[in-house]
Specification:
The protein has 335 residues and is α/β, with parallel strands linked by helices. The chain has ten helices and 13 strands. Strand 5, helix 6 and strand 6 form a beta-alpha-beta unit.
């Protein structure tokens, strides 16, 4: 998948694309319908398929004091879109000057003249332009002036809940990764490099990888059954390894800042500096303070046994069984 970081200088073979337009934070099942529609229309017309999104997320620009809220930072979003078979990704830098572009200018100058799109696909609630004054009605009207087609996809639900990034965030913050997974169509995941920690887990017999989670939404603190992917190089097959992780402040050892630490089952090897992709599969328990390291070690051992049961392959009653790939299964990833 090719990535273009500007709306200017787009090469001829990348123009005339069918592009899904939106923030697509989470790339959830609702987003995937919009993206799949763009990909299908592109195939039917023998045109490139594309996604147009923005970096940084507009909310980060206008509300910088907010805590991290993103379900899919840029790197992870690009990986997911590539896995969905999108040919190219347009990611213009979103800044205050860009935010002052009127809705009409956005359609004419950015979509039509800048990117040279042949067809725009968006959700029914898509708004754009200065003050969010543009809507799908304006998009259709101005796009027609530039011979640019528009397809609007109506909201999609699971029969009760409309697929929504906001609802997914709420479920993760409430300690419900399974509920989030049902709306996302995949587990919530964090991608980050392994940093050196205090090696307390190693002293307790459970070495952990301290994963940099900066830029991601913070889920509920506590212990999770997880799967972790390691890749040797971009595009090479990666092995998904079962494990148990703690996200929290580690009150037993006087920790203060939020940390994401994962213990990988039956794994030995150097992880420092490696970029890992960690999926939250199920929530096991809240984080709590223990009366000393012996009690903490005993609880970690129990958490590991619990996580192994949850992630055991072939048990359809478990979230790690029939519904998800086992730790031995390989998947194409590019951390």
């Amino acid at each position: 998948m090719r990535i273009f970081r500007s709306v200017n200088g787009i090469p001829a073979d990348a123009r005339r694309a069918v592009a899904a337009v939106g923030n697509f934070d989470g790339v959830h099942l609702g987003h995937r319908v919009v993206i799949a529609t763009a990909r299908r229309l592109a195939r039917e017309r023998a045109l490139p398929s594309a996604v147009l999104t923005f970096e940084p997320h507009p909310r980060a620009l206008f509300r910088p004091e907010d805590p991290p809220f993103r379900l899919t930072p840029f790197r992870l979003k690009a990986m997911l879109l590539a896995e969905l078979g999108i040919d190219q990704m347009f990611v213009p830098r979103f800044h205050r000057g860009f935010a002052q572009i009127t809705a009409e200018q956005f359609v004419g100058d950015v979509l039509a003249r800048g990117l040279g799109l042949a067809h725009v696909v968006c959700g029914a609630d898509f708004v754009f332009g200065k003050g969010r004054q543009g809507d799908v009605a304006l998009l259709r009207r101005v796009a027609a002036q530039h011979a640019m087609a528009v397809t609007v996809v109506e909201p999609v639900s699971d029969g009760g809940t409309v697929y929504s990034s906001t609802v997914i965030r709420q479920k993760l913050e409430a300690g419900d990764p399974l509920g989030a997974m049902r709306l996302m169509g995949r587990p919530f995941e964090v991608i980050g490099r392994v940093r050196r920690g205090e090696q307390i887990g190693r002293k307790l017999g459970f070495p952990t990888a301290n994963i940099d989670h900066a830029g991601h939404l913070a889920p509920a603190t506590g212990v999770y059954a997880v799967r972790v992917a390691l890749a040797d190089a971009r595009g090479e097959p990666a092995r998904w390894i079962d494990g148990v992780a703690n996200f929290g402040r580690r009150p037993t050892v006087g920790g203060m800042r939020l940390m994401l630490e994962a213990h990988l089952f039956d794994f030995s090897g150097e992880l420092y500096g490696r970029r890992l992709r960690l999926r939250l599969i199920d929530y096991l328990r809240p984080e709590r303070r223990f009366d000393g390291l012996d009690a903490l070690e005993a609880q970690i051992a129990e958490d590991a046994r619990h996580a192994r049961r949850v992630l055991a392959p072939g048990d359809a009653s478990q979230p790690g069984g029939a519904s998800l790939a086992s730790g031995a299964q390989r998947e194409k990833v590019a951390p």
